[in-house]
Design a protein that fits this description.
alpha+beta, Jelly Rolls, 2 domains, four-stranded antiparallel sheet, 7 helices, globular
Amino acid sequence: MAGALNGLVGIWDRPFINLEPYLDLDQLASLDEEICYALAQVGTTYTGGSHKAMGIVPPSLANDPYIDYGQVIRGFSEKEFATFVSLGNDSGAFDPRRRQEYEFGEERDHPLTREQMRFLEFKHGVYFPWKVFYELVPGGYWSEKSTSAGKDFTREARLYFPRTVAFVKSLPFREIGRCTLLGLNANDHGTVHRDGEPEDQTAPDHFITVCPRGNKRLYLWNEERQEKTHVDGRAYWFNDFDYHGVEAAPSFRYSLRVDGVFEPAFLEQLQRDHATQGTRAPSS
């Protein structure tokens, strides 16, 4: 897709779509109570932390001071690598002399264990932005997040998040391929990145982000103009092939993201309301 907003790709020549007028959000206070109570009990993990190594940060922020675990792992000596893999699931499967051949982390052959992430954080200063990450519907690889084939809410999600599961099922999706909670601790920020190359995109991926408290300040980053566009609303859709990040704040913040394929009638309504005549191309 060509950039239509002088540096942002957007959706139908708009930086984002506020979805509050289209969804029933009366339950959000109740969902917030359930989610916070459940997060205190279930196991969560980290996400983020390798955007530089993945090549998805804007050039102007590639040399910021926040340490990337992909870069750290690439720089390990044999001894450091052996220490690192000893915290994994099968340390004997790795030869430290061949350490440059292995890939670790998100979208890689060897996902990080909780112990490895904490070691990278404590010993090597790696910054993991989203220190609370929980999958209600595991999505598999990023390229698979829009398809529901072989996926469902986990048993634990149904047990601890019943109202949230019911809410997600009520959203206007034809199919759901991924559902996650993403939280940032006090004073942490979400590192600016994008989830794909705009020239590779034929239409924006379908997803809804819900922020029950409305206090997670997501913004879109315009690299050309070096400026932010803050996203308003407790529910919204934006083009995640645009650079985006989250402002730091003095308290914990989280959002619920649901990926999949929109119901055709819902997508058509959004297009009628938000697309200009020149941008009414198919979006699915």
